[in-house]
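Budget justification, computational time. The allocation requested in the original proposal was used primarily to generate structure tokens for proteins on the priority list. As evidence of use, we reproduce two of the resulting records. The first is shown immediately below.
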Amino acid sequence: VQLQASGGGLVQPGGSLRLSCAASGFTFPTSAMHWLRQAPGKGPEWVSLILADGTTSYKDSVKGRFTISRDNSKNTLYLQMNNLKPEDTAVYYCVMTETNQRGQGTQVTVSS
């Protein structure tokens, strides 16, 4: 299993970022996937989940601001993040839900 997240960066409060995760080494279209994040000095925090059938769920604090999606033709997972807040600052990881495997994360920093 290989998972490579990208798209992070420095953004001002209220800004947007779109994270991508390129997946390989497993049958992506039939796999549930989720995003988690880890802020400095804190434990990992679940953010959002998407099932193989497209059903989604979100952490309460990101509902209405984040959108998870997938493109099975490209074996890619996405996280569109709008109206970002400083408390969203963290390293974001994509995770294969069944095995809890995750790859390299991407840093998101929200600061003025």
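The second record produced under the same allocation is shown here.
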Amino acid sequence: VQLQAFGGGLVQAGGSLRLSCAASGRTFSSYTVGWFRQAPGKEREFVAGIMWNAAYADSVKGRFTVSRDNAKSTVYLQMNSLKSEDTAVYYCVATPTGSSYSDGYWGQGTLVTVSS
């Protein structure tokens, strides 16, 4: 599975962005897909993930929505009410359902910068 994340950019606090993670290769629908982020000087952290259901980090609940379109082999991360602390490089990862994200296929990151 090859993944490509895109959609990052510069946005003002309170604004919105939608990230996309496009996959190619094996059957995409059987993979759990997650979004992680890494801010400068910080460790990479889980943001959201989706297989049949979605899961979110507490810091983004109510603001971010993850969804998938298996026909397009794409997973989206809709980010609303963005805060400066959401500034990070965002990565998507696809892993066989039941496996750890650390065993998955990672895409290159896309930078999100939120200006206050």
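A brief technical remark on that second record: The mean pLDDT is 95.
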